[in-house]
Structures are given as structure tokens and as C-alpha cells.
Amino acid sequence: MTETSWHADPLRWGNGPRIFEVFLEPTDPYSAKAFNKLDALLEQAGEEKITVKIRLHSQPWDMYSGVIVRCIIAASTLEGGKETAKKVLAAVAARREEFEFDHHAGGANMDATPNQIIERLEGYSGVKLKDAFAIADLDREIKWHCRYARQNGIHVSPTFMIDGLVQADVSSGNDVATWVKKVLGH
Fold first, then answer.
1. CA distance linking residue 56 with residue 149, whole number of Å
2. Contact assessment for residue 129 and residue 74, using Cβ atoms and an 8 Å cutoff
3. Is 179 exposed, middle or buried (0-12, 13-18, 19+ CB in 10 A)?
4. Phi, psi at residue 16, to the nearest 5°?
5. What pLDDT, on a 0 to 100 scale, did the predictor assign at position 3?
6. Which pLDDT score, from 0 to 100, does residue 2 have?
7. Cα 77–Cα 93–Cα 150 angle in degrees, nearest 5
8. What tens digit of pLDDT does each residue of 28-66 get?
9. pTM higher than 0.90, yes or no?
10. Could you count the other beta carbons within 10 Å of the beta carbon of residue 20?
11. Distance between CA atoms of residues 147 and 3, nearest Å
12. How many CB atoms lie within 10 A of CB 63?
């Protein structure tokens, strides 16, 4: 058995007993909206009451989704771990149109290469991604996120789970107070 010399830091914040999982496709506008509310959720609910877990849910119709997801996971292997990955997620959320295609099939990114996308993301996030992106077996972690979503029947992003159960009535359009009430039950 081969030892790996890298570790992907789990994208998990808080240490409470209630588990709020959010399945995000980083270039999706609704996923970006949900991502931008997670810090407020932790603050309002209390880090001692809730654990927030981000699950990356790559979607094939979002053409550079796989590259972006790999960049985020690669960032989690670097110094700072999940906080470094969060910087990359935030950079994508802030400029998601620059990482997407017009109507999933056109626009300026038709001429962009994966290396150009990585370089763009490095510039926006301040995180040097190229070496970590090239980790040979990084796909092991990417496949885990994919399999976890599939086993839970996740099809769209964002999707929310509380304590292992999909919450069809929770959306990125909810305000944070609604999420807190749903997670904590009051």
C-alpha cells in the first residue's frame, strides 16, 4: 500500500451536535448565494451548537466545474487547510461568471484553458494552486465528494441536509434566521 504525502482538510466549521451539510457547485449562482451565508449561520446559531460541512457537488453542465472543484480540494491540502480552500471558494463566489460559460455552452471561456482558469483563480484568491492541483491521486478526494452526494440522492445544487436528512424546504433564498430555526428547531 502506498502512503500519500498529502491530506485534504475536511471543509467543516463549528463543533456542534447539529450537522448542516450543504452541497455546492461553486460556479452556480444559488450555491454562491448559500456559501456567502455560511459564516453568518455559524455566528447566529453558535459554533458550539452547529457543525457546517461543505460538500462539493460538481455538475457536468457547468463546464469548468471539475477544474474548480479540484482547485478547492487542492487548496485544502495546502497550509491553512480548510481556510485556504474557503479563500478559493470565496474567490469563485465573488466572480463566478468569470468561471462559467454563457448558457453552459458559449462565451469567453470557450477559449480558456484549464491552466488559464487555475491562474485566474490563483490571482483572485491569492492561493498558489498549480502544484497542489497536480497531486496525482487528488481525485481520490474528489471521488469521495461525488460518491457521498450520489449515495444521498443529491441532484441539484445547492442541496441542504440536516443531521443526514435532505431538507427540500431549505433554499439559498432563505434568510439566515430561517436556517438557524430549521437547524436548531427554535
1. 8
2. yes
3. buried
4. -85, 165
5. 53
6. 52
7. 65
8. 999 999 999 999 999 999 999 999 999 999 998 888 999
9. yes
10. 27
11. 22
12. 21
Cα–Cα separations (whole angstroms), residue 65 to 26, 47, 56: 7, 30, 10
Angle at which helices 65-76 and 114-125 pack, to 10 degrees? 50
Determine the Cα–Cα distance for residues 27 and 92; give it in Å rounded to an integer: 7
Residues 185 and 132: their CA atoms lie apart, in Å, by 40
- By CB atoms closer than 10 A (0-12, 13-18, 19+), residue 61 is exposed
DSSP, residue by residue, the chain: -PPPS--PPP-EE---SEEEEEEE-TTSHHHHHHHTTHHHHHHHH-TTTEEEEEEE---TTSTTHHHHHHHHHHHHTSTTTHHHHHHHHHHHHHTGGGGS-BTTTBSGGGG--HHHHHHHHHHHH----HHHHT-TTTHHHHHHHHHHHHHTT--SSSEEEETTEE-TT--TTS-HHHHHHHHH--
Among 73, 103, 104, residue whose Cα is nearest residue 89: 73
pLDDT number for residue 106: 86
Which regions in the chain score pLDDT beneath 70?
Answer: 1-4
Grid cell in block for residue 129? 494552486
Q: How far apart are CA 7 and CA 161, in angstroms?
A: 25
**Residue keyed to cell 456567502:** 36
